[in-house]
Fold this protein.
Amino acid sequence: MTGNRNMREAGFTLIELIITVFILSVLLAVAMPSFLDTVRSNQISAQANDFVGALSLARSEAVKRGRNITITATSSTSSNEFGGGWSIFVDSDNDGVVDSGEEIIRVHEALQGSNTLNSVNNISTLAFTATGFLSTTNTLTFRLCETRAGKIGREITIKATGRVSSAQYTCP
Protein backbone atom coordinates (compact mmCIF):
# COMPACT_ATOMS: atom_id res chain seq x y z
CA MET A 1 0.00 0.00 0.00
CA THR A 2 2.76 2.44 0.74
CA GLY A 3 4.28 1.86 -2.72
CA ASN A 4 1.13 3.12 -4.48
CA ARG A 5 1.00 6.30 -2.43
CA ASN A 6 4.68 7.17 -3.27
CA MET A 7 4.09 6.75 -7.01
CA ARG A 8 1.06 9.02 -6.87
CA GLU A 9 3.03 11.80 -5.14
CA ALA A 10 6.05 11.65 -7.49
CA GLY A 11 4.51 12.97 -10.74
CA PHE A 12 2.53 15.89 -12.23
CA THR A 13 -1.11 15.68 -13.08
CA LEU A 14 -2.30 16.61 -16.55
CA ILE A 15 -4.04 19.69 -15.14
CA GLU A 16 -0.81 20.93 -13.52
CA LEU A 17 1.09 20.44 -16.78
CA ILE A 18 -1.55 22.32 -18.83
CA ILE A 19 -1.54 25.23 -16.36
CA THR A 20 2.27 25.41 -16.46
CA VAL A 21 2.33 25.46 -20.28
CA PHE A 22 -0.38 28.13 -20.32
CA ILE A 23 1.54 30.37 -17.91
CA LEU A 24 4.74 29.97 -19.94
CA SER A 25 2.94 30.86 -23.18
CA VAL A 26 1.46 34.01 -21.61
CA LEU A 27 4.90 35.06 -20.34
CA LEU A 28 6.43 34.49 -23.80
CA ALA A 29 3.66 36.46 -25.51
CA VAL A 30 4.31 39.42 -23.21
CA ALA A 31 8.13 39.27 -23.43
CA MET A 32 8.58 38.59 -27.17
CA PRO A 33 7.78 42.11 -28.55
CA SER A 34 10.18 43.67 -26.07
CA PHE A 35 12.87 41.17 -27.05
CA LEU A 36 12.36 41.92 -30.78
CA ASP A 37 12.66 45.66 -30.13
CA THR A 38 15.93 45.03 -28.30
CA VAL A 39 17.27 42.97 -31.21
CA ARG A 40 16.31 45.69 -33.72
CA SER A 41 17.86 48.41 -31.56
CA ASN A 42 21.10 46.44 -31.31
CA GLN A 43 21.10 45.92 -35.08
CA ILE A 44 20.73 49.68 -35.69
CA SER A 45 23.54 50.42 -33.22
CA ALA A 46 25.85 47.86 -34.85
CA GLN A 47 25.15 49.20 -38.34
CA ALA A 48 25.74 52.79 -37.21
CA ASN A 49 29.02 51.72 -35.60
CA ASP A 50 30.04 50.00 -38.87
CA PHE A 51 29.47 53.21 -40.84
CA VAL A 52 31.19 55.42 -38.25
CA GLY A 53 34.11 52.97 -38.26
CA ALA A 54 34.29 53.16 -42.07
CA LEU A 55 34.34 56.95 -41.93
CA SER A 56 37.09 56.90 -39.30
CA LEU A 57 39.10 54.42 -41.35
CA ALA A 58 38.82 56.56 -44.48
CA ARG A 59 39.87 59.68 -42.58
CA SER A 60 42.87 58.03 -40.94
CA GLU A 61 43.98 56.44 -44.23
CA ALA A 62 43.77 59.84 -45.94
CA VAL A 63 46.07 61.37 -43.32
CA LYS A 64 48.40 58.36 -43.23
CA ARG A 65 48.77 58.16 -47.02
CA GLY A 66 48.65 61.90 -47.66
CA ARG A 67 46.04 61.34 -50.40
CA ASN A 68 42.32 61.67 -50.95
CA ILE A 69 40.32 58.68 -49.73
CA THR A 70 36.77 58.33 -51.01
CA ILE A 71 33.76 56.46 -49.71
CA THR A 72 31.15 55.69 -52.34
CA ALA A 73 27.83 53.86 -52.20
CA THR A 74 28.16 50.59 -54.09
CA SER A 75 24.50 50.04 -54.84
CA SER A 76 22.91 53.45 -54.55
CA THR A 77 19.19 54.05 -54.93
CA SER A 78 17.38 57.27 -54.15
CA SER A 79 15.53 55.57 -51.30
CA ASN A 80 18.58 53.90 -49.74
CA GLU A 81 21.84 55.56 -50.82
CA PHE A 82 24.38 53.80 -48.61
CA GLY A 83 22.13 50.95 -47.44
CA GLY A 84 23.26 48.87 -50.41
CA GLY A 85 26.84 48.94 -49.12
CA TRP A 86 29.89 51.13 -49.64
CA SER A 87 33.50 51.03 -50.76
CA ILE A 88 36.52 52.89 -49.40
CA PHE A 89 39.28 53.49 -51.93
CA VAL A 90 42.29 55.64 -52.82
CA ASP A 91 40.90 58.13 -55.34
CA SER A 92 44.02 58.97 -57.37
CA ASP A 93 42.23 61.16 -59.91
CA ASN A 94 39.67 62.64 -57.45
CA ASP A 95 36.69 61.72 -59.63
CA GLY A 96 34.75 59.78 -56.95
CA VAL A 97 34.72 56.61 -59.05
CA VAL A 98 36.76 53.43 -58.53
CA ASP A 99 38.94 53.25 -61.64
CA SER A 100 41.28 50.43 -62.61
CA GLY A 101 44.52 50.72 -60.70
CA GLU A 102 42.96 52.53 -57.72
CA GLU A 103 43.40 50.61 -54.48
CA ILE A 104 40.23 49.48 -52.72
CA ILE A 105 40.81 49.62 -48.98
CA ARG A 106 37.56 48.06 -47.76
CA VAL A 107 34.15 47.03 -49.08
CA HIS A 108 31.06 46.77 -46.87
CA GLU A 109 28.08 44.75 -48.07
CA ALA A 110 24.46 45.87 -47.90
CA LEU A 111 22.82 46.46 -44.53
CA GLN A 112 21.00 43.47 -43.09
CA GLY A 113 17.26 43.73 -42.68
CA SER A 114 15.24 46.47 -44.30
CA ASN A 115 17.17 49.36 -42.75
CA THR A 116 18.06 52.43 -44.80
CA LEU A 117 21.14 54.67 -44.67
CA ASN A 118 20.61 57.95 -46.49
CA SER A 119 22.39 61.27 -46.59
CA VAL A 120 20.38 64.38 -45.87
CA ASN A 121 22.59 66.08 -48.49
CA ASN A 122 21.57 63.54 -51.21
CA ILE A 123 25.09 62.37 -51.93
CA SER A 124 26.42 58.93 -52.80
CA THR A 125 30.13 59.83 -52.54
CA LEU A 126 32.24 61.68 -49.98
CA ALA A 127 35.99 62.15 -49.66
CA PHE A 128 38.55 62.96 -47.01
CA THR A 129 41.61 65.01 -47.98
CA ALA A 130 45.21 64.41 -46.90
CA THR A 131 44.60 66.71 -43.90
CA GLY A 132 41.68 64.57 -42.68
CA PHE A 133 39.12 67.23 -43.59
CA LEU A 134 36.11 66.59 -45.82
CA SER A 135 36.64 67.61 -49.42
CA THR A 136 33.56 69.83 -49.04
CA THR A 137 33.07 72.69 -46.59
CA ASN A 138 29.56 71.47 -45.75
CA THR A 139 28.59 69.34 -42.77
CA LEU A 140 27.26 66.00 -44.00
CA THR A 141 24.46 64.15 -42.22
CA PHE A 142 23.35 60.54 -42.66
CA ARG A 143 20.26 58.91 -41.18
CA LEU A 144 20.05 55.20 -40.43
CA CYS A 145 16.45 54.07 -39.99
CA GLU A 146 14.20 51.06 -39.84
CA THR A 147 11.35 51.01 -42.31
CA ARG A 148 8.86 51.23 -39.45
CA ALA A 149 8.02 54.88 -38.72
CA GLY A 150 8.51 56.32 -35.26
CA LYS A 151 11.34 53.99 -34.34
CA ILE A 152 14.68 55.11 -32.97
CA GLY A 153 17.46 55.25 -35.52
CA ARG A 154 20.82 57.00 -35.67
CA GLU A 155 21.93 60.31 -37.15
CA ILE A 156 25.59 60.36 -38.15
CA THR A 157 27.16 63.77 -38.70
CA ILE A 158 30.51 64.59 -40.30
CA LYS A 159 31.82 68.12 -39.76
CA ALA A 160 33.93 69.79 -42.46
CA THR A 161 36.92 69.19 -40.17
CA GLY A 162 36.32 65.43 -40.51
CA ARG A 163 35.00 64.89 -36.99
CA VAL A 164 32.30 62.18 -36.90
CA SER A 165 29.51 61.96 -34.30
CA SER A 166 26.45 59.79 -33.86
CA ALA A 167 23.22 60.49 -31.99
CA GLN A 168 19.77 58.94 -31.61
CA TYR A 169 17.20 60.00 -34.17
CA THR A 170 13.45 59.32 -34.39
CA CYS A 171 12.73 58.08 -37.89
CA PRO A 172 9.77 59.57 -39.77
About this structure: DSSP finds two helices and eight strands in the chain. The longest strand covers residues 152-158. Residues 10-170 form a domain with the minor pseudopilin epsh fold fold (CATH 3.55.40.10).
